[in-house]
Design goal:
Length: 179
């Protein structure tokens, strides 16, 4: 027998959701409570006992009730109530838009710009020979130049020696012909 003594666990239980009517009723109760507190602060005890004001508040509650039903259709009302992180979308008129103001960049755009600037800075320093890689490249280049100069010098010496040998060989032949 598994732990807990039951066949299943807590995962199969039925979920309980709050109906939209109950949520609207709770909101109305909170609004009414807030209004009553405001009236008590403003007018004291006399304003709370005035029947005309109570009728007005009840009438306005009914009209707000109709507006809420109209605005909240289906799941949209639930999401609006239960998601405190949701920011309501506000539309701006063309006259309110600020086109000349500084445009805020996203994080990726900022990082891309920073990366490009860093690469440009590195290339400038590299061309100036201030980076370690540039110093290593210049040292390697100096070694290669020396090796090439030595190879060119040896070739020149060999060519001169060969030319001297051919010239001396020709002289020998011309001397032997002259005799």
């Amino acid at each position: 027998m598994p732990k807990g003594g039951r066949k299943g666990g807590h995962k199969g239980r039925a979920r309980q959701y709050t109906s939209p009517e109950e949520i609207d009723a709770q909101l109305q109760a909170e609004k009414q409570k807030a209004r009553e507190e405001e009236e008590q602060k403003e007018g004291g005890d006399g304003a709370a006992g005035d029947p005309k004001k109570e009728k007005k508040s009840l009438d306005s509650d009914e009209s707000e009730d109709e507006e809420d039903d109209y605005q909240r259709k289906g799941v949209e009302g639930l999401i609006d109530i239960e998601n405190p992180n949701r920011v309501a979308q506000t539309t701006k008129k063309v006259t309110q838009l600020d086109l000349d103001g500084p445009k805020e960049l996203s994080r990726r755009e900022r990082e891309e710009i920073e990366k490009q600037k860093a690469k440009e800075r590195y290339m400038k320093m590299h061309l100036a020979g201030k980076t370690e890689q540039a110093k290593a490249d210049l040292a390697r280049l100096a070694i290669i130049r020396k090796q090439r100069e030595e190879a060119a010098r040896k070739k020149e010496e060999e060519r001169k020696a060969k030319d001297d040998a051919t010239l001396s060989g020709k002289r020998m032949q011309s001397l032997s012909l002259n005799k």
